Amino acid sequence: MMARWRLPCRSRPDWCCSSGHRPPGRAPSPGNWSRRARLPAEAVVSSDAIAEELFGPGVDRGTVDEQVFEERDRRVAERLDEGRTVLIDATNVLPRGRERLLAMARKFGVPVTALRFAPHEPVLLLQSRERAKRVPDAEISAYATLLRDTADTRHLLAEGISTVHEVPGRAQGMGAAEAARRFRFEGG
Length: 188
Description:
Layout: E1 5-7, E2 15-19, H1 30-36, E3 44-46, H2 47-55, H3 61-81, E4 86-89, H4 95-108, E5 112-117, H5 121-129, H6 137-150, H7 153-159, E6 163-167, H8 176-181, E7 183-185
Parallel strand pairs: 1-7, 2-4, 2-5, 3-4, 5-6
Helix pairs in contact: 2-3, 5-6
């Protein structure tokens, strides 16, 4: 049996960012994660959900990402300023994407806990093939390489993330619902 992880709220809350947990275009439901991990739904800030909320489904993210990230940052800062936990649901494979969030954590003086979803390339390819909106195999392979080369635990810790939790998945015989139930967030 795998351990359950508690992500505690210290004198100021942790905020969590998820790293490398899905191929491009894969959008798990933040509500499902928050419900299963016993975290209020409003504590989950999702770039994909913000893009859909502001611009509708199917928006070309390349044209609106800056506005989406500004709104994401505003929501994260609001929660941290109120002393509440926040879970940022974003891929965060590249260091430059994580740096913006790490700078915000430093500004508020809060530690960052990363939930690292690191499925192997064959699992990513299978997940893409199971979806209605498929991502090209070449894009999945490039993503898997970036994940391996820039978002492993060693890199995340060196960048300033306080704690990294590896989240089990299909390769370990575990579905998303079961994996989410293994986490309990405090300080919501």
